[in-house]
């Protein structure tokens, strides 16, 4: 080891380096910026959508009051609200929501289980990617309602038909999300993994999957939206007494009875569930993941 | 442990390259990046590999690191896994600083408590004891590079003078003051750990300041052109050596015009 001629004063030189280094660390460390109060932050989040909603309802009320269209085409906001409120007070709404949401959740979870291996295989094997990659991306643009007739012919008016349609809607988006998440991993990270001693499996577990997580979460979010849409399409078309009444059937019943206020009530409830799950489940999840990586905490 | 000790006694080098060549591509479009490179780094020695862009110095490092296989020649390593540091820190953005340092230990199956202890030891070594819980985006560029150094040191499995640290222009993306500080820090850590270092750079001044030996590589194909022992020269003579190496480097580059 070099114990050079400058040995006698290395002590002071090293102290100097240490203090300069510490000063640089203090100066260069990025500072957290958000200084707004918690109350104002929540207000800033909540106020704009509430204002937008009030404006939309006001326009609706004005159009209804102007009576451009007959009542059976454009009902009053209050009538639609009454439809919803009646279902709430009679307890029927619990049944609608339970039937639809539990189907969507089960369908979504099965879709996740199917899509993860599918996505991993497509992302990691170029032959598979060339073979079925375009088909999986293509399936994303095929409206899953197109599967309903086939499902009904194959499985009859059963839960199996409904789950079939939900799966075909959700699996391609989740798999694609995982593939694009893997594609966006900076190539340096798997190389670092290799020099740190990660084998193929350890690299997938400790480096590739966590690195792909933001893209994968985007895929999950889209997969949920597709499950929910596909489910509504399936429920709307495949109606039968033994399937029970979900939100889709409720909408179908409104159409059969030519009751516009019931139809709009159903649409609002469907929208409400879709937005609710997104806000309660996916938004916080996505925000936590992105925040932890210093990416865009303003969501 | 005895096995590694014996190996250290038997062989007098941390890494030895003999006649190493590397060709990318095939047929007419093949590019020869390295041709007959002979290079030896002794245990505990600090060697700087110097060359213009495209001379294949990074290729040498990739070959030694095992990220790529040589087309010809042999590479003998005296350690089962060299520590590698890249130009970017390349920390895992989802892990805290100390978890990043723990990662190679985790991959090697080290127990949690031992991992923790080793990681905090290494963070202390790079003077980052207080920031173990921070995420990479909360650290400055120089701090990230030091975490990367701690992580690289954690990945080197054998200690006891057998370890080898490979560095690929690790400070070139940093500002001048930070680079200066990190160079002194690297020298301090090198003395403390007694590891051999193979340091790739295109900066002559940096090479002379850090290395005990400076090896100049020619470009396309990369060959060892000349080497200088810069260990014992006094600071006054340093400028002269830097000039001499610079002149030779310019000659090598001009020969491609």
Automatic annotation (TrEMBL), chain A:
Q: How does it sit in the membrane?
A: Multi-pass membrane protein
* Pfam families in alphabetical order: BPD_transp_1
The name on file for this protein is NitT/TauT family transport system permease protein
| Cellular-component GO terms for this entry | plasma membrane
**InterPro entries cross-referenced by the UniProt entry:** MetI-like, MetI-like_sf
Mind giving the lineage of the organism this protein is from?
A: Bacteria, Bacillati, Actinomycetota, Actinomycetes, Pseudonocardiales
Q: Where in the cell is it found?
A: Cell membrane
One GO BP: transmembrane transport
The UniProt entry's sequence similarity note says: Belongs to the binding-protein-dependent transport system permease family.
Alphabetical UniProt keywords: Cell membrane, Membrane, Transmembrane, Transmembrane helix, Transport
* All residue ranges annotated as the ABC transmembrane type-1 domain in the record: 97-281
From TrEMBL, chain B:
Q: Residue limits of the ABC transporter domain?
A: 15-244
Quick check: keyword ATP-binding in the entry? yes
The UniProt entry, under SMART domains, shows: AAA (SM00382)
This protein's superkingdom?
A: Bacteria
Q: Recorded GO terms, molecular function?
A: ATP binding; ATP hydrolysis activity
Q: SUPFAM superfamilies in the record, alphabetically? A: P-loop containing nucleoside triphosphate hydrolases
List UniProt keywords, sorted A-Z: ATP-binding, Nucleotide-binding, Transport
Q: Identify one Pfam family in the record.
A: ABC_tran
- What are the TM regions of this chain, as residue ranges? none
Q: Carries keyword Nucleotide-binding?
A: yes
What is the protein's given name? Answer: NitT/TauT family transport system ATP-binding protein
What species was this sequence derived from?
A: Actinophytocola algeriensis
